[in-house]
Amino acid sequence: MPPRRLLFLFIILILGAPWCGWGQTRAAKAKAEAEAKAAAASAEEARKTEALLKLPNFVLILADDLGWDDLSPFGHESIMTPNLQRLADEGMRFEKAFFTASSCSPSRASILTGRYPHQTDAEELHWPVPKEQVTFVEKLKDKGYWTGAAGKWHLGDEVRDRFDKVLEVDESGFQLPAGAEAASGEFSETTEGDAQSGCADWIPLLKERAPDRPFFLWLASLDPHRPYHENIIEDGAHPDEVRLPPYHPDTPAVRADYQAYYDEITRLDRHVGEVLDELEAQGLTEKTMVVFLSDNGRPFPRDKTTLYDSGVRTPLLMRWPGRIAPGLACEKIVSTVDLAKTFLSLAKIEKPGITFEGVDLSPLFKEPAKPIRDYVFAEKNWHDYEDRSRSVRNERYKYIKNDYADLPLTPPADVVRSATYVELLRLLEKDGLTDAQKIHFLTPRATEELYDLRLDPHELENLAADERYAPLLRAMRAALADWQAKTGDVVPEKRTVDEFDRLTGLPTPERVRPRPSKKQRVETETVAAKAAAAPPPAPAP
Ligand SMILES: [Ca+2]
Fold first, then answer.
1. 366 plus 424 within the same structural domain
2. Do 365 and 417 share a domain, yes or no?
């Protein structure tokens, strides 16, 4: 090689060496950075998983049509509910808990969305919850929870995907068949025996859940919803054990109706016990918050669908060993609209979005006497029959505003077909009812009602016209108006047609199933209104 070329090569080598070395350093640095990043991501993932596994499991057990005090922890002396008693002894009893509606699907929609029924577009019975609605369940799912439902569903198809798994009982246990098949008013149940409780899939769901994640389970029974069957349990309730409110006549037929209701409560209690045992067997008792409540009041006249306490007050039990002291009672008023925010808070979901109403109840676990809210609100909308009322209650008083006071206070259709209602009609004919027992047959009703729950727990003496209560009446009216304004509650322009006869409880031709949604109804009405407003076709030339 000529010396000049050698020199040139030498210079290139001298100058290039550091650059090659730098190139190697850069590649190594990038590699090291990528490795550090991956390690951090995996540490972050591990930290997230660790944090996730520290979160509690939630099991929400929902009774169907159970009155607030028809179980031993709430003072009933003869209905046998040893497992619910155990749940209460090991957890907290909420003495003054209220639904936002005394109607099955609207009450459930309200619990899931943490909103009042009229905010969900599912405020009438059987209106499905629209897919636009946000529920706390998908928030838990996003956080990493496994979510499952078993038993009664009754929320429509559009929010099923919020759950990883839905094991649904069919509707034959709580809904009449559609069309001509329903003419007799008889249910045609497709299940038999114990499966009629709606609880048969509870334990299978608890066994099927994802084993490596926290979980939320919605376990919904069909007990003690009508229809009732004889001898469903051994050694059932006796007629002399029945406790009747003053607005139900004391006759053998009414007592027998109550006995059947009591027996379904006892059956439900056994299934609750099985869930508690299964949690124990899986070693989950300490890590799981169990919540027990109903969806609306007792399925008897003046109870279910009404805004009286027998309609809108629920038993509410919460057990979480180590976090909720055993055997405590909370006397503060709380609402089922508060449950969503409570679950979200306990799952450490800090920004759940703006749709959730209600307040987090978890501060009450440590301080049961802490004031949480001044009022609870409830609403009555169409349920088999048209009606519309709103109520506000504080610790002591309740105010009810009846928008359709021209309509009678008819109970839901399954209750109209009940032995108790048939008995009311029989005694009405013979002029054998007290004023309190006649309430379903009197129109017009009062447009406003005011009760002192402390002195009058059955809400029989309306104080709204009593001058001494005028300042209280004004304050309660204002509280209700304020809530209505804040939540966008207005009386609709059109009423909904009844789907059952008010005397027999039998379906009318208007009844179709599945029931169209609110949106479908509005679309149908818009089309009809446009057709009616269209100019008549021009006469043929
Ligand atoms: Ca119900």
1. no
2. no
For the chain, the distance separating the N- and C-terminal CA atoms, rounded to the nearest angstrom, is 110
* Tokens representing residue 64 in the block: 């169907």
In this predicted model, what pLDDT tens digit does every residue of 355-407 receive, in sequence order?
A: 999 999 999 999 999 999 999 999 999 999 999 999 999 999 999 999 999 99
Q: State whether 356 and 487 are in the same domain.
A: no
For 349-499, where are the E strands, in sequence order? 376-380, 389-393, 397-402, 448-452
In a shared domain, residues 281 and 425: no
Q: What is the CA(413)–ligand 1 centre distance, in A?
A: 13
CA distances from 149 to 101, 113, 165, 199, 323 (A): 22, 15, 6, 11, 25
Gap from CA of 6 to ligand 1 centroid (Å)? 97
CB 61 within 8 A of CB 291: yes
Residues 461 and 356 occupy one common structural domain:
no
DSSP structure class, residue 392? E
In angstroms, what is the span from residue 317 Cα to ligand 1's centroid?
18
Q: Give me ligand 1 centre to Cα 26, in Å.
A: 68
Q: What is the CATH number of the domain that holds 274?
A: 3.40.720.10
* Ligand 1 centroid from CA 104, angstroms: 4
Query: How big, in percent rounded to 5, are the helix, strand and coil portions of the chain?
Result: 40, 15, 45
Distance from Cα 65 to the centre of ligand 1, integer Å: 4
List the 397-402 sheet strands across, edge first.
Answer: 376-380, 389-393, 397-402, 448-452
Residue 21 lies in a domain: no
d(CA 116, CA 488): 10
Q: From the centroid of its chain, how far is CA 482? A: 24
Q: Are residues 350 and 427 in the same domain?
A: no
Q: Are residues 498 and 413 in the same domain?
A: yes
Phi, psi values for residue 41, rounded to 5°? -60, -40
Q: pLDDT confidence of 457, banded at 50, 70, 90?
A: very high
In the chain, the number of structural domains is: 2
The residue from 339, 374, 409 where one domain ends is 374
- Which position has the token pair 């990043």? 37
In a domain, 8, yes or no: no
- Is 23 within the bounds of a domain? no
**Enclosing domain of residue 77:** 49-374
Say which residue, 21 or 466, is predicted with more confidence.
466
- CA 112/CA 118 separation, integer angstroms: 14
Whether residues 303 and 232 fall in one domain: yes
pLDDT band at 420 (very low <50, low <70, confident <90, very high): very high
Q: How far is the CA of 385 from the centre of ligand 1 (A)?
A: 16
